[in-house]
Amino acid sequence: MATYAYTVRDAAGAIRTGTSEAENAEILGRRLREQGFNVSEIKAVKARRRVQGSFLSNLQQVKPYELAVYFRQFSTMVDAGVTLHRCLTVLAEQTQNTRLRRITIDMQHEVEAGQSLSRSMSKYPTVFSNLTIGLVRAGEVGGVLEETLQRLSTFIEKDVELRRKVKSALTYPTIVLVMAVAIVLFLCTFIVPKFMDLFKTLGVKEFPPLTMALMDFSNFLIREWWAAILIGVFVWLAFKLFGRTRTGTYIYDRIKLKVPVIGKLNHKVCLARFSRTLGTLLVSGVPILQAMETVAGTVSNSLMSDAIMEARARIREGDRIGEPLKKSGLFPPMVVHMISIGEESGALDQMLAKIADFYEDEVDAALASLAAAIEPVLIVVLGVVVLFIIIAMWMPLLSVIQNLSGNQDDSSGGGSGDS
Known about the structure:
419 residues; Receptor-associated Protein; 3 domains; 17 helices; 6% strand; mainly alpha; three-stranded antiparallel β-sheet; 76% helix
């Protein structure tokens, strides 16, 4: 689409200028007249080139906690009466993330040219989510941008805190698992071959099935390690590619909710994110249908997304939100009843905030019990694997010792008979 500069006169007779993208000047003029403006002039202009960053800066990730600080500072300046252009200038100067700084400069140019903040953000969907853009757009329309930015920063901070707790609880079990794998690989590639050489020296020719399996696995790791790496990479890529399909995503998300222990935790995280996101959107003035569509893309589970979109379709037909959520079987009765009460009392956003607080506390408790349960299980699994290796290596030695004992008995018995 081309970029056009326009001059219009509003209902009060004030002259306004700005720029906008449109397929042609006629479509833009029709759009402006529908908004109640009297069009004076429309002319094509060259679109401002975006500030190009280096290859590495374009690959740099903008982390959620950086966005939380970014919007917290943004809301503070807007609340203090600083102009939008000046806010973006200050943010571009003090933002440490190179990619976010470049994007902020581009947004500053767009706003200076007459674009809205939400429209300029929508050009960077990999950095600013639909939730962010929807909240900013609602704040612009309602004239409460500073409150919306503050709610947005609070929402991101809570989401970051929830993610941090999950990662923190899984850090120690992950370390234990990595160490277990490293110990097993060390035993199979360094210790087992020593025993194999010892068995050859002792003349052992027949091995128990358990020992044969361990020796075959050790030989595979030593001689065909490249095949093990290729198999691992292939399996990982296959899972990734299958997970990107709709069927794969559906299966993975169902497993995430059904797997013992972890499934309940994932379910509670999704419920907390659903409640917090929907409540934040509604209290910011986003229409319920648009809010439900945005929430469906943020719960990170296709089964719950489908249930939310089904509820959205029922709301469009005039139904309440609680009944379709109940039929999905993914939302507990407490959540459904509290949402229904919130709808009836006109305090749905407050009820959703209470639900989010409740499930965030539930996640904390589940994480504590999960960490306490996983650690001993991993240690027991590691002990069983090491015990398997020890038994498999000692069985041939025991056989050799028994044979030697039998030979000694035979020789001693034969000697006594001769005398």
